[in-house]
């Protein structure tokens, strides 16, 4: 059980607990999330963050539930909020224990009264249910009071009291608050008393550290209050964007149903251990329903990312195939195939139904073919592959002939592309920080792999794929000569091209930066380099990029290396792909390392030991999940989102497919 003890060391709890966050999700992109102290430190935190147009248009509806007990004239508050110059109340002083398994649970103790608060969400609904179990062995009566702090705003914005106009209605079991047609229902078996009150200037300290606005006001519409007699008592409060009417039996059924659903996630695995089970449960949170397509998709990360094409295709094998969720895999692939345009699958879908799909990615389509082939390997579902074969042909045809964003195959069989189209795509003040315009090593590794994977699938369908083989041979003939850096014994990262095709601008020197992208030239099923070159690449990557949490995006010996990912947006963006560690790269690294070492049991044991850092991390930052990034410099503090899909997915995939398969 992961816990944060507060009874004997409460002074240290804020610093310890505030940096540990929990999150539960509802399969729609909505979630409930806060810290181990119960104090919100991000604008993204809330007990009900609803996806109005799943999995997007997420809104903070219920910020928190603030509990207190009163024994005679003595009142004890369990909430914690930061205000300018003050932390009040300091409910963490009464927090005996916090755990996340099987549900987020806070256990408070004050005045010889124990209050246990347990939280879940209804899968497939924007509904959060909180159960309270109170033990009062000593007092004739104790007053138990809960004050909901509500909001109704986009997750990226903050509210001031003058901005929020809520219409409030009462009903027999609670209250309804409405803003512009969006309703929040708060229901309970505890009587509700309306009493409007504003909490002003609440501060979210993580937003301050990230260089964003960090103060907002939250509205308190009243309070739930009841008298608790001697003995054991149970109550609940539920918040939802749709009408609800529950009793305690319903609450028990909701918790039990969610428990069964979670347990079923890990039942399909033949070889089980704690790390595997925790990764599978974490992976479940990213698979969501997309309302606009009526199918499944993958959220890239919590709290702020939506479903992105590149992230979805990289994450799909780990989240759905190694876990046996084949129906979800098929639905996700179908979603992106149906929206392919000009040989490109979506980079991301719009927040609004009237918005336009963005196609600014060169690698998502190549990852699509890779994931489709892996889907076929796992399921032998040729009928589905036949149904999306036109998408595969469209991708290869458009890449050969040229398509949007200057994506095209050159005469040497290598793919080149415009700017900001690979996964290293950050731009600051109009300047690409990792300019990769031209030919890049991993895109061409993916291109060759896609050609041969498409060829093998086409043959199973009875298609003539000889043209694919011919292009693949041309690509292979020229790849090593173009990208091999003899001086360093690894690959050039990028071969720049003129910004305008056909212009006479001089081409810059090949980019000799040591980056992790070259690992894909070793890890993919079909590769182009001789074994000795692959071994050399892996040694360079191990020596210069490997950390316990992933691969650095740039060698520390590079003058542009930045080892700390912190500060305002520009500071973080500058470091994002220039030294910052990415856990998702552990997946291809593990696959490649075991491959070049002959898939020996020793190499598998080495890679299993490598994951000990991730096991420790599961108790940090986002509890039970894996962060987006880490500092390049030790001690490699986590950063970015607290829960990132491809971080979880690629570690999970490599753990099952590579480490778990013993010879």
From TrEMBL:
Q: Name one GO molecular function term.
A: amylo-alpha-1,6-glucosidase activity
Q: Which InterPro entries match?
A: 6-hairpin_glycosidase_sf (IPR008928), 6hp_glycosidase-like_sf (IPR012341), AGL/Gdb1 (IPR010401), GDE_C (IPR032790), Glycogen_debranch_arc (IPR006451), Glycogen_debranch_N (IPR024742)
Report domain Glycogen debranching enzyme C-terminal positions.
Answer: 282-653
Among the Pfam families in the record, one is GDE_C
Source species, domain of life? Archaea
Instruction: Tell me the ranges covered by the Glycogen debranching enzyme bacterial and archaeal type N-terminal domain, including all copies.
Output: 20-233
Q: Name one GO biological process term.
A: glycogen catabolic process
Protein name from the UniProt record:
Glycogen debranching protein
What organism is this sequence from?
Methanolobus chelungpuianus
């Amino acid at each position: 059980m992961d816990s944060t003890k507060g009874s004997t060391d409460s002074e240290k709890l804020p610093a310890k607990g505030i940096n540990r966050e929990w999150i539960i999700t509802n399969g729609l992109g909505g979630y409930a999330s806060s810290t181990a102290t119960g104090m919100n430190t991000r604008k993204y935190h809330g007990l009900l963050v609803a996806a109005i147009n799943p999995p997007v248009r997420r809104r903070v509806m219920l910020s928190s539930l603030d509990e207190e007990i009163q024994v005679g004239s003595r009142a004890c508050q369990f909430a914690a909020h930061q205000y300018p110059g003050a932390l009040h109340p300091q409910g963490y002083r009464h927090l005996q224990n916090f755990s996340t398994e099987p549900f987020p649970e806070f256990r408070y103790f004050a005045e010889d009264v124990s209050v246990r608060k347990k939280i879940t969400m209804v899968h497939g609904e924007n509904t959060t249910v909180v159960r309270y179990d109170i033990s009062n062995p000593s007092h004739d009566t104790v007053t138990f009071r809960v004050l909901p702090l509500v909001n109704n705003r986009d997750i990226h914005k903050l509210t001031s009291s003058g901005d929020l106009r809520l219409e409030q209605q009462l009903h027999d079991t609670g209250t309804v608050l409405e803003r512009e047609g969006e309703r929040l229902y708060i229901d309970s078996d505890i009587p509700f008393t309306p009493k409007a009150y504003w909490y002003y200037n609440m501060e979210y300290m993580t937003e301050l550290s990230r260089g964003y606005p960090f103060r907002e006001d939250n509205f308190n519409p009243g309070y739930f209050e009841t008298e608790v007699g001697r003995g054991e008592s149970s109550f609940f409060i539920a918040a939802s964007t749709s009408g609800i009417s529950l009793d305690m039996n319903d609450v028990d059924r909701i918790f039990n149903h969610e428990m069964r659903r979670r347990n079923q996630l890990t039942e399909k695995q033949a070889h089980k251990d704690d790390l595997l089970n925790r990764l599978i449960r974490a992976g479940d949170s990213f698979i969501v329903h997309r309302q606009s397509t009526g199918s499944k998709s993958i959220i890239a990360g919590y709290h702020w990312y939506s479903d992105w094409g590149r992230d979805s295709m990289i994450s799909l094998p780990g989240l759905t195939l190694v876990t046996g969720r084949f129906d979800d895999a098929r639905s996700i692939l179908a979603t992106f195939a149906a929206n392919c345009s000009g040989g490109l699958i979506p980079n991301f879908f719009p927040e609004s139904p009237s918005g336009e799909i963005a196609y600014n990615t060169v690698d998502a389509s190549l990852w699509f073919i890779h994931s489709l082939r892996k889907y076929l390997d796992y399921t032998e579902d040729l009928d589905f592959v036949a149904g999306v074969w036109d998408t595969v042909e469209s991708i290869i045809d458009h890449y050969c002939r040229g398509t949007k964003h200057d994506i095209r195959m050159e005469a040497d069989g290598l793919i080149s592309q415009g700017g900001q189209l690979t996964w290293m795509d950050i731009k600051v003040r109009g300047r690409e920080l990792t300019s990769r315009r031209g030919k890049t090593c991993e895109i061409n590794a993916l291109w060759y792999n896609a050609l041969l994977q498409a060829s093998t699938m086409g043959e199973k369908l009875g298609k003539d794929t000889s043209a694919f083989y011919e292009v693949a041979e041309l690509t292979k003939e020229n790849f090593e000569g173009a990208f091999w850096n003899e001086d360093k014994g690894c690959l050039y990262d990028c071969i720049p091209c003129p910004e305008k095709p056909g212009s006479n601008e001089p081409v810059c020197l090949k980019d000799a930066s040591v980056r992790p992208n070259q690992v894909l030239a070793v890890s993919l099923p079909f590769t182009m380099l001789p074994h000795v070159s692959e071994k050399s690449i892996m040694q360079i990557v191990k020596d210069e990029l490997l950390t316990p949490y992933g691969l650095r995006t740039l060698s520390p010996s590079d003058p542009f290396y930045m080892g700390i990912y912190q500060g305002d947006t520009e500071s973080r963006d500058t470091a994002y792909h220039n030294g910052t560690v990415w856990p998702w790269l552990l997946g291809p690294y593990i696959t490649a390392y075991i491959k070049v070492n002959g898939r020996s049991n020793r190499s598998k044991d080495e890679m299993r030991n490598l994951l000990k850092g991730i096991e420790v991390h599961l108790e940090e930052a986002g509890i039970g999940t894996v962060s987006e990034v880490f500092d390049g410099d030790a001690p490699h503090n986590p950063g970015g989102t607290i829960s990132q899909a491809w971080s979880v997915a690629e570690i999970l995939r490599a753990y099952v497919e590579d480490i778990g398969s013993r010879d």
